[in-house]
Amino acid sequence: MELYLGNNLIDEIKEIINLKELQRLIILDISGNNLIREENYRIYCIFHLRRLRVLDGLSIENSECVEAKETFAGRLTNEILESRLGGFSLSNVKELALDGCKLRDFDKMFDRDTCPNLRELNLSHNFFASLRGFGYLP
What we know:
about 140 residues; alpha/beta; Leucine-rich repeat, LRR (right-handed beta-alpha superhelix); 2 domains; four-stranded mixed sheet; two-stranded parallel sheet; 6 strands; elongated
């Protein structure tokens, strides 16, 4: 229920994803790690660890939960891509299925250098309201 990881050498914010399986985690302390320098680290943690009630000694406010959802919900992230690709490099992928992921935005995720071999992209059954970002596809 409580995990204290303060003052370690954790650098990358995506390491937080590894704590998602801790279903009973409600108190987390990661203060003193380099990852707290990342922009939006607190709301990133709140978004991905939904049962969390206290982060770095501070109670999580409802307004932070709303901000976390508005900031991260529906956005294509590297974590989603990594889970969908199952270890494959994006540069080698020819087909990518992201249907039904509840995505609403993937601006700045793809460019000609990132996925040069991509030929088919399935984004059906998502929540896109804009075609911004599609111009960067190969």
